[in-house]
Write a structure and sequence with these properties.
FAD/NAD(P)-binding domain, 20% helix, seven-stranded antiparallel sheet, 35 strands, globular, alpha/beta, seven-stranded mixed sheet
Length: 692
């Protein structure tokens, strides 16, 4: 069986880990002890984990984050989420083809009251916002418990191999997300006023102002905090199209989890839907892992993410098609191709413009929704509650880092007499870090053919300043007073140190050196790809900022030093006239396209509720009958009754109601239930023998 593990990565360490034997459908396989079972199955090229009992549709990974039930399998006859179940030697795993029957034993177990604790502050979520809040609270010795459902703190930072934007002083700009996670984790002083609970899940918030926690996935504990901080991040929005539930259709977070956390080659050919930063960055991560990206579509006229992210993909050979959307995922048991089409100004598909690309994975990156159900419920019960990071407002991780810092101080003021003043510049910085990309400017060029100087291909207003802080001669300045202003080469005193090239998060700076000859230049560019991809002496295709071919160039040298933080620098021999235009080299071929099929947009048979296999037509039928209460729709169709608790389908159903012309004030949204995470009943029991 084909092994899909990544044995070489330009950023991540690929070390040997303890391999163990386990069984799938009676067949012996090999996996990594302690990694999630879903990843071990994926590594063995098993991507279909079962079939839905309602319509026998294939089921596979979707969120890889415990939010849905698509990856459920059975171990010893009990259904479990494979993405949240660590692999153990000898496990016998079976696909969840039919749900097991309940035992005939009708004895009601004896439950005793759970353990209860009080604390000053409870933080749900150990991502950038939660960690930075805990760090601030520890400075004032405020008793704090911070919990996270993973084995370590860091949240989505542990999946981010790229360097961060923003302010170098405020949020570690120029440092990779994986390293920021470690920096913040090491700053949390445990054992004093702060306790860190990993592998622990918040189950629900209750009317007596207590929060149910499943600690270490074993012991159920009620915590009564004086203040609750919800820093639970965001979940990805789903997108409804024909074939959207096929194995191989999943979100960027799931993809990054499989590739960057578990080092598994998740795809042979990837297609991306969505041109925000999430989709653009995931595409770059795929290329770093050696996974070809056959294309990216964005329904808007321009991508919503940073232009430097788009430019990276373009110059590495990824077709980016704006004013396009996905029509269908095609295949019987798993994704075999994707059909896309142009859209008009109202985002309706233009018939006759369909194109189909062969791929085995469709990455859906169409935005995020805040995971704020704990925050809303706590507010309903009049608790002292705050939200930070994406749970408060969807923005970049750099913003979450800073919002956690500010909220940590605000919460500290709840407990101390001498109130801490929050500097105005903190609030200003926080607001700037939340800002969307601003204006784009025309690229400034130069005809200079002497000396050495940088070419700055960063021409869009975004919050970022590492290049100006790292230059030893202060040659690079911001073209204005705000961190949003674009950087410019201001003083002609460059010494060719290459630090600006190495630190730029957007890989948007090249260094042009004419000191050897006026006829050609040595152009230095960043290149964050696997060793062996290129070699000294190779003749390669150079490209400009938009990915257009410039000229064939020779690689003179590859500079890979520790100081440059896993960013090797390529030195290219480029003709003098073209030197200023070269910013990258192509690393993948252009993929062919062919017209294979035509499909109408959003047919009634597309699946809205993945857990209960409820279609858009089922929902529309009830709306046309005058039912606008989502609770009633839930009762009739079971949409939202599945294991995900409506996290995926509820926003889609609400959108269908709006699309069908139902006024917002007439829509009755679902009533949130007390438990937000499904838990085995025996976890609520404190009996010694609670496995029966």
């Amino acid at each position: 069986m084909k092994d899909l593990r990544i044995d070489s990565h330009p950023i991540l360490e690929t070390r040997e880990r303890n391999k163990v034997k386990f069984y799938w459908n009676g067949k012996e396989l090999e996996g990594i002890e302690g990694e999630m079972l879903s990843s071990s199955l994926f590594a063995n090229n098993i991507k279909i984990f079962g079939h839905h009992p309602k319509d026998k549709s294939p089921q596979g990974i979707f969120c890889a984050n415990g939010q849905c039930s698509q990856c459920m399998v059975t171990i010893n006859g009990l259904p479990v989420k494979s993405c949240m179940t660590p692999l153990k030697a000898g496990m016998r795993v079976e696909p969840l083809e039919n749900y097991p029957e309940l035992p005939e034993n009708n004895k009601i177990p004896k439950f005793t009251p759970p353990k209860e604790l009080k604390t000053d502050v409870l933080i749900i979520g150990g991502g950038p916002a939660g960690m930075n809040a805990a760090i601030e609270l520890s400075k004032y010795k405020i008793k704090t418990i911070i919990i996270d459902d993973r084995h370590r703190m860091g949240g989505k930072l542990v999946l981010q191999t790229h360097k961060f934007f923003g302010s170098q002083d405020a949020c570690y700009a120029g440092t990779r997300g994986i390293d920021i996670a470690t920096l913040l984790e090491n700053k949390i002083e445990t054992g004093k006023s702060t306790s860190v609970w990993t592998n622990s899940v918040a189950v629900g918030v209750y009317s007596d102002k207590k929060v149910g926690i499943l600690r270490d996935m074993k012991e159920y504990i009620l915590i009564e905090p004086e203040v609750l901080l919800v820093a639970t991040g965001a979940r990805e929005k789903s997108l409804v199209f024909k074939g959207n539930t096929l194995p191989g259709v999943y979100g960027a977070g799931a993809f990054q989890t499989i590739v960057n956390r578990d080092l598994i080659r998740a795809s042979e050919k990837l297609f991306i839907v969505g041109g925000g930063n999430v989709g653009l960055i995931a595409g770059y991560h795929a290329l770093q892992a050696g996974i070809p990206v056959v294309g990216l579509v964005e329904a808007m006229k321009e991508v919503g993410g940073y232009k430097v992210h788009k430019d990276k993909l373009a110059r590495f050979g990824v077709p980016i098609l704006t004013s396009h959307t996905v029509v269908s995922a095609n295949g019987k048991e798993f994704v075999e191709s994707v059909t896309i089409a142009k859209v008009d100004e109202k985002f309706s598909i233009i018939n006759g413009t369909e194109k189909t690309f062969e791929c085995d994975t469709i990455l859906v990156a169409v935005g995020l929704n805040p995971v704020n159900e704990f925050y809303k419920k706590a507010g309903l019960y009049n608790m002292n509650v705050y939200a930070a990071g994406d749970a408060e407002e969807i923005a970049e991780a750099s913003s979450a880092i800073y919002s956690g810092k500010i909220l940590g101080v605000k919460i500290a003021n709840h407990f101390i007499k001498n109130k801490i003043s929050i500097p105005t510049e903190w609030e200003n910085t926080a607001n700037i870090l939340k800002m969307k990309p601003g204006k784009s400017f025309k690229m400034k060029t130069t005809d200079k053919k002497e000396g050495v100087f940088p070419i700055i291909n960063c021409i869009q207003e975004i919050p970022c300043n590492p290049c100006i802080t790292v230059c030893p001669k202060d040659c690079i300045k911001l073209d204005g007073d705000s961190i949003m202003n674009i950087p410019i080469y201001d003083i002609d005193e460059c010494i060719g140190c290459e630090q600006c090239v190495a630190i730029c998060p957007g890989l948007a700076i090249s260094l042009v050196d004419f000191r050897k000859s006026p006829d050609y230049a040595v152009v230095t560019i960043p290149f964050e790809f696997r060793k062996g991809t290129i070699s000294i002496g190779d003749i390669v295709q150079s490209v400009d900022i938009d990915g257009n071919d410039v000229e064939m160039v020779e690689i003179l040298d590859i500079k890979d030093i520790r100081k440059n933080d896993r960013t090797p620098l390529l030195k290219l021999k480029v003709s003098g006239n073209n030197a200023k235009n070269v910013i990258g080299i192509k690393i993948q071929k252009q993929f062919d396209e062919s017209d294979l099929c035509r499909t109408e947009n959003m047919p009634d048979d597309v699946i809205v509720c993945r857990c209960e296999r409820v279609s858009a037509g089922d929902i529309r039928k009830l709306i046309h009958e005058g039912i606008y209460d989502m609770n009633q729709i839930k009762i009739i169709t079971r949409a939202g009754m599945g294991a995900c608790g409506g996290k995926t389908c509820q926003p889609i159903i609400e959108n269908i109601l709006k699309q069908e012309g139902v006024p917002k004030e007439n829509i009755v949204v679902n009533t949130d239930r007390p438990l937000f995470i499904e838990v085995e009943l025996n976890k609520f029991s404190t009996r010694e023998n609670n496995d029966e």
